[in-house]
Amino acid sequence: MSAISSLVPSRFLTLTAHLVIVITIFWSRENNVLACLPINFTPQQFSSRDTELIIALSVTLGLFAVEYAGFLSGVSMFNKTQSLLSVGAHASATVSLLFFLFEGWDCSLYWWIMSFCSALPAVTEIIIFIAVFGWKRKPL
Question: What's the CA gap between 130 and 136, in Å, rounded?
């Protein structure tokens, strides 16, 4: 299998691995919320940070929907540039979020991980959607 033809399964696997880790963080977000708070915190501070993390994770799930829609519909499945960007971003996100989950990183770091590793590929996916459906160009 050549390097180009292996981008499609690699993209699917890294996208799915990133999705699984985001869902895992959703289920066990209490430890990460506690890592964001000072030692003496109020229930209101906990609730505020928990809501912030829920919003960030929900935005990430929305960005996954955009990427899966473009990928599974075939619009960007064979686009080499998008596949390479997506594989790199989601592999980086997978590793970063594993550290975020197990090391108890601060919640504000999640926004950085989301913006570079989820929002960037989703924005390029939207650009490909516009090029294909709006300007009637080939997806390759």
Answer: 8
58 φψ region: left (φ > 0), alpha (ψ -120 to 50), beta (else): alpha
Name the pTM for this structure: 0.90
* Residue 87 Cα distances to 8, 27, 49, 52, 125, angstroms: 9, 25, 30, 27, 13
pLDDT of amino acid 104: 86
φ and ψ at 3, to 5 degrees? -65, -35
8 A C-beta contact, residue 92 and residue 37: no
How far is 135 from 116, CA to CA, in rounded Å?
27
Region 69-87 average pLDDT: 92
Question: Can you tell me the mean pLDDT for 56-73?
Answer: 96
Structure tokens at 52: 């912030």
Helices (H), 36-115: 43-73, 80-103, 108-114
Mutual angle of helices 43-73 and 120-129, in 10-degree steps: 40
How many of the other CB atoms lie within 10 Å of CB of 68?
15
